[in-house]
Design goal:
The structure is a single chain. This protein is mainly beta and about 120 residues long. It has a domain of about 80 residues: Complement Module, domain 1 (Ribbon), CATH 2.10.70. It contains one helix and eleven strands, in the order βββββββββββα. The protein has a four-stranded antiparallel β-sheet, with no helix packed on it. A three-stranded antiparallel β-sheet has the order 1-2-3, with no helix packed on it. A hairpin with a 2-residue loop joins β9 and β10. The longest helix has 8 residues. The chain is elongated, with a radius of gyration of 18 Å.
């Protein structure tokens, strides 16, 4: 018989919380498997730094422009800029868990518009 239970995971660094379904096959805890369900999320655009994506191991096919539910995005600003907002976001059922952060100059305090994006449009 298949039993389901919901657990809450809280990351210690940013205190972002989200809920995950755990599938329990048998009674042993070693048989817990994370359910890979939910809609994929679009890739994040217009961030003026670097985004690292950590995706779950999946067998489901996801379009190249989308990221699987369960993916974690980690935001890193370019040198001389500090992150304003959450440093990571989680994809769950087609939505990201946080708003897109900004990169703020450590010298002026002004937010950086995505110079990489605007420069590529001028070419």
């Amino acid at each position: 018989m298949l039993k389901l239970r919901m657990i809450k995971i809280i990351t210690t660094k940013t205190l972002v919380s989200f809920y995950v379904l755990i599938e329990i096959q048998q009674i042993t805890a070693s048989k817990c498997v994370l359910l890979e369900s939910g809609k994929p999320c679009p890739q994040i655009e217009f961030f003026p730094g670097v985004i690292h994506y950590i995706t779950p191991d999946m067998t489901n096919e996801v379009p190249r422009t989308m990221l699987a539910s369960g993916t974690r995005a980690i935001f890193i600003c370019d040198p001389d800029f500090a992150l304003r907002g959450e440093s990571q976001s989680f994809c769950f059922d087609g939505r990201w868990s946080t708003e897109l952060p900004k990169c703020v100059s450590i010298w002026t305090g002004h937010a950086l518009i995505n110079a990489k994006y605007w420069h590529s449009k001028l070419k």
